[in-house]
Amino acid sequence: MRTMKAAVVPELGAKLEVREVPVPEPGPGQVLIRMQTSGLCHTDIHAAAGDWPVKPNPPFTPGHEGVGIIEATGPGASLHKAGDRVAIVWLGKACGHCSYCIDGWETLCESQENSGYSVDGAWAEYAVAFDSHVITVPEAVSSFDAAPLACAGVTTFKAVKVSRIQPGDTAVIFGVGGLGHLALQYAREFGARVIAVDIEDSKLDLARRLGADYVVNARTTDPVEAIRDLGGADVAISLATSPRAFEQAFGSLRRGRQAGVEVFPHRFRHHFSHTWLDRGGAEGDLMELNGWTSPQMLRRYGASARSARARRSYDRVMQDSR
Questions:
Q1: Are both 87 and 213 inside the same structural domain?
Q2: I need a surface site. Which of 30, 132, 141, 222 has the fewest CB within 10 A?
Q3: In this predicted model, what pLDDT tens digit does every residue of 225-237 receive, in sequence order?
Q4: Which helix (H) or strand (E) holds 289?
Q5: Residue 312: its pLDDT value, please?
């Protein structure tokens, strides 16, 4: 029996453990992927801590921003073949026949499986995933750069896409972090004038380098007033986990315009899971994102951690999020 190393959450709220476990076998409609890289998303932290009403069942392996090479296919898996490089994403599987799936809102499917949550994810040397829901990675994009696009990338791409922003419109991005710096670049590609809002000068410097037309430090300036002085926002996308940032996003809008919330504050008053806001992007959005992504167009900023440091990175983020 072949074995592999996997990062495992042994109990909700416990420290991550690197264990030697059997290499999984691909079942019907599944593929076995030899992982090359995987991102660390804040959803992984919520999963490990058991923060949400529907909790994962430990022990489990997190990770839904994984990229690797298909090594074997299970019975009936015909969309991909051995040797293909694919991404594992949050939406591990949807039923495909409920009203949500038929309408293109697979992320609302009540029978969905979620990678690294209800099924084991990408924080391992090997992972199994459904052939129907892995996404081919373009050759021009490295596995390291592609991994966070499987969640942070498609989440922000979907936010910009559904905003129906038009060339010349003004988009405001609240929070220039792991998601916000991608939203900024997508909004520019859609032809928008972009205003970036953050409370850290280093993040605002990054926003300038990525092409923001204006930046606002919300620590020293009222962003609502500053944005209104610039004519107001046609689209506001909040990516900061702060109720105040959410309120400011709405306050910055011109009358009749749109706001999207992609990262929810921990203590926000309303539960949105059954309303118009969806979690991330559906399969079609991921495929469309592939057509937008190239090393020349998109710059991703982050830090890498190989296996010896991965557990420490996870522990540090866990500690910072408590």
A1: no
A2: 222
A3: 999 999 999 999 9
A4: helix 283-292
A5: 63
Residue 202's CB is within 10 A of a number of other CB atoms, namely 9
Q: Where in the sequence is the domain holding 189, given as residue range(s)?
A: 153-261
Same domain, 101 and 209: no
Residues in the chain: 322
User: 84 and 166 in one domain?
Assistant: no
Percentage of the residues of the chain whose pLDDT score is greater than 70? 80
Spatial neighbors of 183 by CB under 8 A, at least 6 apart, are: 156, 159, 160, 173, 237, 239, 262
The 10 Å Cβ neighbour count of residue 276 is 7
Does residue 250 carry a pLDDT above 80?
A: yes
Task: Please state, in angstroms and rounded to a whole number, the distance separating the CA atoms of residues 172 and 238.
Answer: 8
Listed in sequence order, the residues at least 6 apart from 45 whose beta carbon sits closer than 8 Å to its beta carbon are 51, 314, 317, 318, 321
- Looking at the structure, tell me whether residues 165 and 190 fall in a common domain: yes
At 206, the amino acid letter reads L
Q: DSSP of 91-108, one letter per residue?
A: EEE--SSSHHHHTT-GGG
Sheet bearing 135-136, strands edge to edge: 126-130, 30-38, 66-73, 85-88, 135-136
User: Which tokens go with 85?
Assistant: 């490089």
CA quadruple 155, 213, 255, 220: dihedral positive or negative?
Answer: positive
Structure confidence by residue, pLDDT tens digits, 183-219: 999 999 999 999 999 999 999 999 999 999 999 999 9
* Joined tokens for residue 90: 């949050």
